[in-house]
Amino acid sequence: MAINAQELQGQWNQLKGKVKEKWGQLTDDDLNISGGNIDQVVGKIQQKTGEGREAIEKFFTSLTSGGGSAISGAAEKARDFAANTGERLRDSYGQAGDYARERYEMAEDLVRHRPAQSVAAAFGIGLAVGLVVGVAIRSR
User: Fold this and answer.
1) Which distant-in-sequence residues (6+ apart) come within 8 Å of 42 by Cβ?
2) Whose CA, among 69, 88, 117, 121, lies 20 to 30 Å from 39?
3) Over the stretch 107-122, which tens digit does the pLDDT of each residue have?
4) Cα dihedral across residues 23, 24, 29, 32: positive or negative
5) 45 vs 39: CA distance, rounded Å
């Protein structure tokens, strides 16, 4: 796999950081391109890291072809999507909790202001449920 030397040289200052991320033991002096000779840099990387020439060239090719940025772009989009989804879920959970609290407070208020009607309603609902359960048991 051959690397495009011109493209690599044109972007070298930006790409040096990514090369140093991958191979942390490299210094700026190791990554200086003198006289446009990419082979010297590849040789230095091989010497310092023990990495094979083909792997180094493949890494450079992925950097210059945008493969690395496409992957990081996809990862960033996935991270943003997950963060947004989490925020929406928290908001929805909060809204559901607020709604349940409001309804509970309304029920408390109703019982407090109309205790006789509340007891009668509860008794009626209990009676109806009991009848339905009783009929269901007998029909078996």
Assistant:
1) 53, 56, 57, 60
2) 69
3) 999 899 999 998 999 9
4) positive
5) 10
Kindly list the structural domains of the chain, giving each domain's residue range(s) and its CATH number in brackets, ordered by start: 5-65 (1.10.1470.10), 70-138 (no CATH)
**3 within 8 A of 10, measured Cβ to Cβ:** no
Task: Place 10 in a pLDDT band, splitting at 50, 70 and 90.
Answer: low
Q: Indicate the pTM of the whole model.
A: 0.40
pLDDT, position 1: 43
Task: Give the dihedral of Cα atoms 100, 105, 109, 115; nearest 10 deg.
Answer: 60
Length of the chain: 140
Rounded distance between C-alpha atoms, residue 79 and residue 87, angstroms:
12
Q: Which residue has the higher pLDDT, 22 or 65?
A: 22
Positive or negative, the CA dihedral 57, 59, 62, 65 is negative
